[in-house]
Structures are given as C-alpha cells and as structure tokens.
Specification:
By secondary structure, the protein is an alpha/beta fold. 45% of the residues lie in helices and 21% in strands. It contains twelve helices and ten strands. Strands 1, 2, 3, 4, 5, 6, 7, 8, 9 and 10 form a ten-stranded mixed sheet that branches. Helix 6 packs antiparallel against helix 8, helix 6 packs across helix 12 and helix 11 packs antiparallel against helix 12. It is globular.
Length: 303
C-alpha cells in the first residue's frame, strides 16, 4: 500500500520512518522541516536502533502529494480543523484515514468531512520526542493499538501487517471507544500534572502525594469509562502505574506544548471525556479541576 504521513513530528516520523526502513512507500507532509529534510533526510535515534533516511518523499504542500491508500494523521488534535484541506488532495473514496491522536471523539469530528473513507482510530503508547529538524529521539515503547470507527477491515489488516514487518508491536482492538478511554487513563493524569506541577513523569511517581493523585485520577477515569459502558477493570490503573515506574523519565506531549507556548490538547484529552461521561451521569470532579488549572495556565500565554 501507498502511505502518507500528515503531521511529521515525533510520532509521525517514527512510524513513517520505520515503514520506509521496511520497504514501504511513504510520503511525508512537512511544515517547517521541509527544506532541511529535502537536503539532509531524516535522523532517527531509537532504542530499537539508530538509522537515517535519505531521499525522503517529502512535500510542503498536500496538493503535490499522490493519492494514498492509507493516511496516518499524527497532528495534534488542536490542528484537526486543518484536516479537510490537508487530506482532500491525498485521499480517494477508498482510502483509510488513521488518526494516531490523543483524546476522545476525534473520529466523529473527522467523519463529518469525509463521507466514504474508512476511518480508524489509533492509540500510540510510545515515548518519542522531536529534538531537531527531521530528527527524533525514540526513548521507549512504541506499541500501536488500532480500532475501526467506520469502514472495511482489509486496509487495517494490511496496515497492521506492514507495521509488524517494520518492527512495531501492533494490536487490533474490537472496541475503539474502550481503547480510547484506556489511553486516557494514562494521558489524563500525566499530561496535565506535568504541566500544572512543572514536573516529569518520574518525579510524579516518586513523590508520595503526587503518586496518590495520579492513581486517583486514573481510578476516576476508569470509573467514567465504565459509566460510558467500557468495562475496564479497576486493576488497569495498577498496570499503568507499574508501566510508568519502568519508563524512562519523560515529558509528555502536553508539557512540551506548554514549554513552547503552543495550544494544549485540553479539549480532546479533558473536555471531551468530561462532557461525554457527564451526559451519562458521571462527574469527573478531579479531572475537571485539573482541566480548569490547565485552562488558566494556557490563557496566561495564549493571548
């Protein structure tokens, strides 16, 4: 299949470059890095092995890209309003749009603009940061969980196979909504607290007070998910705590957005699950307080 990467940051460059390394045809849409990548290629530092790519299929304008079978959308959800114009030149009526994004309900939003295309949600459990133009550092993990929102399974099965051939652990879930909530169990505490408390994941885990707060937010998220019919077991919070204990010190994406005075994914990661669970009678009180703190912080620099 022919692949497109829209959102060539820490996530898009990692998965796209691994696909290229395995022999897939991949086309990358760049913003600020286009000239650098066109001249110098891509540099990937990874726990799976460092490598570089030359002669990258790089574009600065989606209108110059070929039609692709699968489009991996790795933009922050704060940029999703750009997707209708970015994806229209790249997709045909049978293309599969894969949203490798955080948060809840983004597939519903994108589906309003693309009536015939297959739409897949994807959850990336990965520690990866962009450290320079066309240069990323992959620190840990990398698993992708895929779930169908709308359409056929053939392309998703092929995508899963191609990713696994590229050395990426891949899982297909029959319940996309549940998988989205399970990702939120980690994202809600760690993204927000790393901003509000100006800290890192390991420091949150090492301090008694914040360790308890992280766990409480995880349990609240699980309870909200279950109120929405997801049936996530309570001990999933313990699993997430254990996995984070084993993780290298990490700055989540929202903390990096804060550090660079960019808009944070407050709507997708906080407002959507808060509003969705409230509609079925569950009030995410601690999560709502954290969201309000983040809104205050963001308002201080997004003038």
């Amino acid at each position: 299949m022919k692949y497109a990467i829209v959102g060539a940051g820490a996530i898009g460059l990692f998965y796209g470059s691994k696909l290229v390394q395995s022999g897939a045809e991949v086309h990358f849409l760049f913003h600020t890095d286009y000239n650098h990548v066109k001249t110098n290629g891509l540099q990937i530092e990874s726990v799976l092995g460092n490598f570089s790519l030359n002669n990258v299929n790089a574009y600065s304008d989606a209108k110059q890209m070929p039609k692709c079978d699968v489009v991996l959308v790795c933009l922050k959800t704060t940029q999703n309003h750009l997707l209708p114009q970015l994806l229209a030149p790249i997709v045909n009526q049978n293309s599969t749009i894969v949203l490798i994004q955080n948060g809840l309900n983004q597939e519903q939003i994108v589906a309003q603009h693309f009536a015939t295309q297959n739409i897949v949600g994807a959850m990336a459990f990965i520690c990866s940061n962009k450290i320079g133009a066309g240069h990323i550092r992959h620190l840990d993990y990398g698993k992708l969980t895929l779930g169908i929102f709308r359409g056929q399974t053939n392309d998703m099965q092929q995508l899963s196979s191609d990713l696994q051939n590229a050395g990426i652990e891949t899982e297909i879930t029959p319940d996309l909504n549940k998988a989205r909530w399970k990702k939120l169990v980690w994202n809600i505490p760690f993204n927000g607290l790393c901003v509000a408390l100006n800290t890192t994941t390991d420091q949150l885990m090492q301090n008694t007070y914040t360790h308890t707060l992280v766990y409480d937010l995880m349990c609240e998220t699980i309870a909200a998910a279950n109120a929405c019919g997801c049936n996530i077991k309570p001990d999933f919070a313990d699993k997430m705590m254990h996995n984070t204990d084993q993780m290298k010190p990490y700055l989540p994406s929202m903390r990096l957005d804060f550090d660079n005075h960019r808009q944070m994914e407050i709507q997708a990661i906080y407002a959507e699950p808060i509003n969705t669970s409230f509609q079925v009678g569950f009030d995410m009180k601690k999560t709502k307080m954290l969201m309000q703190q983040l809104q205050f912080i963001q308002a201080s620099y997004m003038q």
